[in-house]
Structures are given as structure tokens and as C-alpha cells.
Task: inverse folding
């Protein structure tokens, strides 16, 4: 679903005044839309739901800041000394409670939650005539709410629980809420799994599906099982849910035959797609990430790039040259878009290694923030690797644990791993490394290091402390809400 903006026009008649009167300054209300009088028809519910989807595209959310927060602290990516100080703070593990990105992410995820809560709170006001539509709208709203909470709790751990029942509370506390937030996440994804379509078609492509909900449920279980919650009984739940999605032919998920095809505009809803943030050019709904990662003065894009998210040289050097993902992951060589007779290469006349994933020469919008490529929140290879991780934590490095990672490696042209070569601990690190090669630049690595307790061992370039496994509650929020309590490692 290429989500289009919904414009609600209020018609106000043009009034001509011919003279003054007693009521000249009295305001007349001709039209006033509020939640209490808006939610009447099925179309109203659909319009409101689109506003929840649209919130994902904010630059404070999944359009940029969430991805950067999950990438910069990793070992693959750095900001090339560009733009906001927060980017360098994230890259060098020098962030503080006042670092700007935390407030932006926190507030934007609560925008998504509040919009979803509003939709859910008014469903009983609507007369539904289409069978199953009410349940699907509730399912999509709950999926999006669960998604926002999953990111919030993994980033900040202690967050206020706001639902349709207490959404009007202004000073909600974040003390002792963790278990209740996790319970809501699981319940939201479970409801969505049971009430959404297995697959969408036509104009509905891009909406959440049962497969997307079940995949995110598996990711939620995986996260809850790992650091810092360490609910080890949830490893088996994660493995079970992931395997159920993998085996469900109604979902139709599979790996693309070639890694490059995953990131082509023409194939953005191919078999590997599970759920994305949707973008479209020429409608004010584009994405600026190709510009953000594109090469500054590199003749790589029609409207140039910014080189603001670039590749660590050691990570570039560490990928096997035989790895078939290498050519699409990194910029190796291309012909100039404005000077097609000139060849650009790295190493060569490009000074720094850059990502190539979200660069598609066919994706040309109306400006530097108007690209149509979608951002994968999750895709099938992510699911396969989640299954391997969960199986390894439950049963060690057996055939079940190697199934997913070896499928991913086979597409990359790499040899299969053998169970006899690994312990549970060494296979955990191998899965992390495979996720880094497969999913770099897609907003996973910080969560992976956190869950697997690998941040302090993997990051050697900077001083990493235990507090870096969680982000601080934004100082802006603490200043206005006395009921919030700062995470203990930041006090």
C-alpha cells in the first residue's frame, strides 16, 4: 500500500460584510471535526488507520532516526563527521540524557501509539457493513501499536504504558511497567496474527498481514528471551513462531534468488518482503535515505548524496570477496549518472567505502527527499536468522539451528556451517556476524548486540560500558513529567 495523504477539507463560506453590527466580532463555527463526531463510517475508520501508518514515515521515526540509532553504535557504520552532534555521540558511545535523537525517537513512537489508541477507542462508534473489516482495522492498529512499543522498550526498557483506556493521562509513570508493556506487545501481535489477511493484494499491498504479525511476535519473543530480560523460556516460543512462519505456504515467503533483487524498486514487494515502511515519489511521501547514504559529489545520484551514513573500513575489508552480497552491500564500481563516461570505484577515486543497498538508478523522485524505495523493518532472511538464533539457544548447534543461517549463506555463495564446528556460544557469534553481513544498514545491529550481550566484546574502537545496552530516558521528558524515572545507569 503506497499510503497516500488524506486531506480533510473544511469548507468555510465566503462572507461579505457591508457594515458593522452587534455580532460582527462573534465567531461562527461552520464545521468542526473532532474524534467524537468523525468516527461514523467505514471510510472514516480507514482514513484514521492511514494516519497511523503515515506516522512511521517521520524523520524522527523510521524514516531516519530509528535506523541511525540502531546502526551508528555498531561496528559496520559511522556518520563521517556529518550533521547533528548526536550522530557522532551515537557512533562513539558518548551520548547523554540530553542527546537530541532520544527525545525525537521517544516522542515519535508515542505519536504512533497515540494514533493507534485513538483508532481503537472509537471503533464501537462505527457502523461496519463489510464482514471482517472491523477486525482487520483493529488488527492493523494493534500491529502498529505493538511495533512502536517493541522499539520503545528495546531502546529505553522502562516506558509508560499508554493504551486506549488511559491515553488521556498526561503524567504517566514508567516505573514497574516492563512486564505489562511486554504483555501488550505479545497480545497486539497475537490479535493481528489471528485477524489479518495471510497476504494482501492490489491497493492493500503494504498493509500489515498475519505473517508480518507472527514474524514480529517471534522477534518480540526473541528480544524478551535475551538481555536484559533474560526470560529463557521464550527462546522456544520464538523458535516455534519463526518456524511456523517459515513453513506457512499461505504467506508465500522465500529468499530471492539473487541478493541484489531484494533492494530493487521494481521488486520491493517480492517474496522476501514481510513488512516495510512504504514510500512513493512525486506525492510528498518519498524517502531521503538514498541521499543520506549516497556519495557526496559522487555523481551517483541525479541530485547528489550527503555521505552521512558510511561504511567502516574494517567492516568493508572483513567481508569475504567471494560473498555474493558484497556487490550490492557496498559501492564497488559504477558509471556516473550525469557523466556516464566516467567510472567511479572504491578503492580508487572514491575516498571512503559507502553502502549501495538503497541505491537504485531507476528510483528518481522530485528531490533529494523523494525516493520511492521502501525500508524493510523485517524480511525473510531476518526471520531465518532469528529462527537459527532461537534454536541454538534452546538446543545448541544442531541441524535445526543451522537451517536458517545456511539458507542465507547458500544464497551468498558461502559454504554451509557444520554443527560439529560450534558450541552454543560460538554459533551465537556466527549468527550475529551473519546478521551483520546480511542486514547491515537496515536498523538491526544495536538490538542484536543488546540481545546477545555482545556490545562490550564486539566494539573495540570506543569505550563501551554496561549503560550503553540501554538508552536514557530523554531529559526533555523528565523535565515535563515528574512521574518518569531515569534508567538507573544514567542517574
Result:
Amino acid at each position: 500500500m503506497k499510503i497516500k495523504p488524506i486531506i480533510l477539507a473544511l469548507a468555510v463560506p465566503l462572507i461579505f460584510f457591508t457594515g458593522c453590527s452587534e455580532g460582527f466580532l462573534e465567531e461562527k463555527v461552520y464545521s468542526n471535526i473532532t474524534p467524537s463526531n468523525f468516527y461514523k463510517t467505514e471510510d472514516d475508520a480507514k482514513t484514521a488507520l492511514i494516519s497511523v501508518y503515515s506516522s512511521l514515515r517521520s524523520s524522527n521515526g523510521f524514516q531516519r532516526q530509528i535506523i541511525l540509532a540502531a546502526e551508528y553504535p555498531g561496528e559496520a557504520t559511522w556518520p563521517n563527521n556529518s550533521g547533528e552532534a548526536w550522530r557522532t555521540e551515537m557512533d562513539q558511545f558518548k551520548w547523554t540524557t540530553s542527546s537530541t535523537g532520544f527525545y525525537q525517537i521517544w516522542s515519535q513512537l508515542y505519536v504512533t501509539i497515540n494514533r493507534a489508541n485513538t483508532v481503537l477507542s472509537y471503533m464501537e462508534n462505527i457502523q461496519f457493513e463489510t464482514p471482517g473489516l472491523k477486525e482487520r482495522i483493529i488488527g492493523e492498529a494493534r500491529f502498529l501499536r505493538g511495533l512502536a512499543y517493541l522499539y520503545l522498550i528495546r531502546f529505553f526498557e522502562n516506558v509508560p504504558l499508554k493504551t486506549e483506556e488511559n491515553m488521556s493521562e498526561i503524567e504517566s509513570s514508567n516505573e514497574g511497567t516492563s512486564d505489562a508493556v511486554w504483555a501488550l506487545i505479545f497480545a497486539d501481535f497475537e490479535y493481528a496474527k489471528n485477524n489479518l489477511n495471510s497476504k494482501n493484494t492490489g491497493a492493500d499491498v503494504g498493509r500489515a498481514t498475519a505473517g508480518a504479525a507472527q514474524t514480529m511476535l517471534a522477534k518480540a519473543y526473541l528480544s524478551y528471551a535475551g538481555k536484559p530480560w533474560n526470560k529463557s523460556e521464550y527462546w522456544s516460543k520464538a523458535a516455534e513462531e519463526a518456524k511456523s512462519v517459515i513453513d506457512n505456504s499461505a504467506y508465500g515467503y522465500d529468499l530471492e534468488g539473487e541478493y541484489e533483487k531484494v533492494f530493487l524498486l521494481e521488486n520491493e514487494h517480492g517474496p522476501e518482503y514481510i513488512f516495510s515502511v512504504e514510500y512513493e515519489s512525486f506525492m510528498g511521501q518519498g524517502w531521503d535515505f538514498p541521499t543520506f547514504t549516497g556519495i557526496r559529489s559522487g555523481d551517483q545520484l541525479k541530485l547528489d548524496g550527503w555521505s552521512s551514513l558510511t561504511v567502516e573500513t574494517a567492516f568493508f575489508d572483513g567481508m569475504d570477496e567471494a560473498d555474493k552480497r558484497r556487490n550490492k552491500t557496498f559501492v564497488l564500481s559504477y558509471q556516473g549518472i550525469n557523466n556516464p563516461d566516467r567510472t567511479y570505484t572504491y578503492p580508487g577515486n572514491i575516498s571512503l567505502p559507502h553502502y549501495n543497498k538503497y541505491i537504485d538508478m531507476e528510483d528518481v523522485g522530485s528531490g533529494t527527499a523523494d525516493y520511492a524505495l521502501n525500508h524493510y523493518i523485517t524480511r525473510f532472511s531476518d526471520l531465518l536468522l532469528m529462527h537459527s538464533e532461537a534454536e541454538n539457544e534452546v538446543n545448541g548447534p544442531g541441524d535445526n539451528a543451522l537451517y536458517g543461517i545456511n539458507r542465507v549463506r547458500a544464497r551468498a555463495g558461502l559454504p554451509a556451517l557444520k554443527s560439529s564446528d560450534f558450541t552454543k556460544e560460538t554459533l551465537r557469534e556466527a549468527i550475529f556476524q551473519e546478521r551483520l553481513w546480511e542486514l547491515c544498514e537496515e536498523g538491526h545491529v544495536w538490538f542484536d548486540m543488546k540481545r546477545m550481550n555482545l556490545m562490550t566484546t564486539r566494539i573495540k574502537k570506543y569505550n563501551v560500558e554496561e549503560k550503553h545496552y540501554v538508552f536514557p530516558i530523554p531529559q526533555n521528558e523528565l523535565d515535563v513529567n515528574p512521574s518518569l524515572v531515569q534508567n538507573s545507569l544514567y542517574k
DSSP finds 18 helices and six strands in the chain. The mean pLDDT is 92. The domain at 1-164+174-196 is CATH 1.25.40.390 (Serine Threonine Protein Phosphatase 5, Tetratricopeptide repeat). The first strand starts at residue 77 and ends at 78.
